[in-house]
Amino acid sequence: MSGSGGADGAGVRRTDLRRVTVVGSGLIGTSIALALRARGVDVTLTDPDPASLRLACDLGAGRPLDGAAESSPADIAVIAAPPAVIPAVLRDAQDRKLAQVYTDAASVKASVVAGAERLGCDMATFVAGHPMGGREKHGPGAARADLFLGRSWALCPTDEADAGSVAAVTELARLCGADPLVLEARAHDRAVALVSHAPHVASSAVAARLLAGDGAALTLAGQGVRDVTRIAGGDPAMWTEILTHNAGPVAEVLRETAADLAATAEALRTWSARTPADPPGRAPAGTETPSRDGAGGGDDDGLEPVRDLLARGRSGHGRIPGKHGAVRRPVYTVIPVVIPDEPGALGRLFAAAATAGVNIEDVRIEHSPGLPLGVAELYVLPEAVDTLAAALSADGWSVHPGA
Ligand SMILES: NC(=O)C1=CN([C@@H]2O[C@H](COP(=O)(O)OP(=O)(O)OC[C@H]3O[C@@H](n4cnc5c(N)ncnc54)[C@H](O)[C@@H]3O)[C@@H](O)[C@H]2O)C=CC1
Ligand SMILES: O=C(O)C(=O)Cc1ccc(O)cc1
Q: Which molecular-function annotations from GO does this UniProt entry contain (predicted)?
């Protein structure tokens, strides 16, 4: 094992990782195992739950670990178990000399590293890790070989970690299709509080409100509420563990989020108490709705907290990097195109874009049930907008750049 990796002529990564043991064959462990199997790595699996282990093996993720039968330690052992048990599982694996190098997949890092140090684990061969790909489901049945493609994979080695250990775990992350990123455990935890843990709680808060809705209200649920609440489907026990292991940073983000929500709610409550009708900016000339001080709608209408949050939210959303990574990926421009709701329409649209030489980076389809038309939102590089809009218009498509 050298961990150098590389790409052969067919673009398939070669690797010097020969054998990896996955401890914890749930969603993440089995997904890592499937990705490694696809790269030709020999994977052995273990899990205290025999049903999970059997399902992972039946899915082709590897073979059950039989410690007695292995002639030598694996190159790497990946511990993909719940955060609280990782230090003890690591210590046990190191005592059994399961592998040369060890990593984990837990969503929190400082408590795992501290726990491993407390238990006297060998920190030279342990590189704490966190693949930033996942799902709201759990168990091996939800595993996917492509779960980590294009995702970041945080590595948090302590100062004691051997360079060879870091190189080996870096190679493991790359073999799974991810982009490894080395950072200190506490910095990792602050970052994921912002981009993963607090968003999970916010999603749960929105989803929990739905319990108060009647059947008719829920029938009206569209894609927006589905997008916002998808991750609320995660396992409550696992998420309680994640949140308590990163409690301080998560509480800080939630406090600021709650302040934004409270200011917005207060502005809307005040607005609704004083205005019988007509939202700002929509009233016919001369009939502007009054504000508390008697002025017409505008900057002093008390809605500034609402506008401010919506504007900051839009900017914040624009900062989320896409598939090409934070530095390299520009923000895409969306071109809405009206398409007939009929077989082959999307194929013809994509073919027209290909003829124009423009790559469609992403696409979303908006359907109105019962209508014969839909809108395809094409995500393209800003410099391709004019070319694509002109080519599609010339081809007869109803194109609406800037809409
Ligand atoms: N669910 C997600 O989207 C992501 C989860 N993670 C982290 O990955 C880890 C695993 O999470 P999932 O795969 O989602 O959970 P999961 O529930 O699908 O799998 C966890 C597995 O660990 C096993 N396990 C429990 N105690 C164990 C022990 N003492 N020794 C060995 N295995 C044990 C369970 O039997 C189960 O099969 C967690 O630390 C989580 O924070 C990381 C990235 C994404
Ligand atoms: O479902 C998703 O989109 C996720 O982002 C899941 C996820 C959950 C926990 C993590 O530590 C990392 C990723």
A: prephenate dehydrogenase (NAD+) activity
